[in-house]
Backbone:
């Protein structure tokens, strides 16, 4: 894995957005996998700015979001769909028919997950997937456990993960849904390139475990050690565990 450490989150996210814009210029039909949460927010802001200055054209690109809360409708203001509309989709020229989302309110989670896995395959897989990482090492909502799931699935969210998402629910972790639908490990591992973002001291232990720990379902991100093309974008605080090695 390539590790890029920047002096600030702003520098890291600007460089990551510029990298994505370069990838889109090289392949305008790029299929992107996109995360929610706090880490990608500045990347989305930068992508919007690049688009506004004519340096990013997403008219032929496709996006697949990685996960969605179970039970929330797409128009619920707390859904990841609404988050993506606010922070990216309203401001760039991705075509609505090329924006893909798991529907957390679908009546049958299993068939919704099967539909989504098929849609990713039909699109030719993900070219570039951007990921955050949970302090417990989760990627998308693939939570640590005795085993990981390859396919898109319904995931129970850990207490720690719900705590980390509380800021999006008025700082009240009890309002964070108990479960989500998420892409499985296979779609993430089969992406041609993975861009993983981590900022702040709360991510330092997870970053060290991802890069140097055993490859274990107890740290889902550690499986990225097996991937050929991963770029990890860090600030100094998230990289602090690496310096002590
Ligand atoms: O970027 P954050 O808010 O720290 O969250 C880490 C990860 O956990 C999630 O909230 C779960 O997928 C992601 O959205 C994010 O990639």
Residues:
């Amino acid at each position: 894995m390539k590790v890029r450490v920047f002096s600030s989150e702003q520098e890291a996210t600007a460089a990551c957005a510029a990298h994505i814009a370069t990838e889109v210029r090289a392949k305008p039909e790029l299929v992107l996998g996109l995360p929610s949460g706090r880490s990608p927010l500045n990347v989305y802001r930068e992508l919007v700015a690049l688009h506004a200055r004519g340096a990013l054209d997403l008219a032929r690109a496709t996006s697949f979001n990685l996960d969605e809360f179970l039970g929330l409708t797409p128009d619920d203001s707390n859904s990841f769909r609404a988050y993506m509309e606010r922070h990216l989709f309203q401001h760039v020229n991705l075509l609505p028919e090329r924006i893909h989302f798991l529907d957390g309110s679908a009546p049958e989670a299993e068939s919704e997950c099967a539909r989504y896995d098929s849609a990713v395959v039909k699109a030719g897989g993900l070219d570039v997937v951007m990921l955050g990482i949970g302090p417990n090492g989760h990627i998308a909502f693939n939570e640590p456990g005795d085993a990981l799931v390859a396919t898109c699935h319904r995931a129970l969210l850990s207490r720690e993960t719900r705590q980390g998402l509380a800021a999006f629910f008025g700082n009240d972790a009890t309002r964070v849904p108990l479960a989500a639908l998420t892409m499985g490990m296979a779609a993430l591992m089969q992406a041609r390139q993975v861009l993983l973002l981590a900022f702040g001291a709360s991510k330092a232990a997870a970053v060290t475990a991802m890069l140097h720990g055993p490859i274990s379902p107890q740290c889902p991100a550690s499986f990225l050690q097996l991937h050929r093309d991963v770029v990890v974008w860090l600030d100094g605080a998230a990289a602090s565990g690496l310096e002590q090695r």
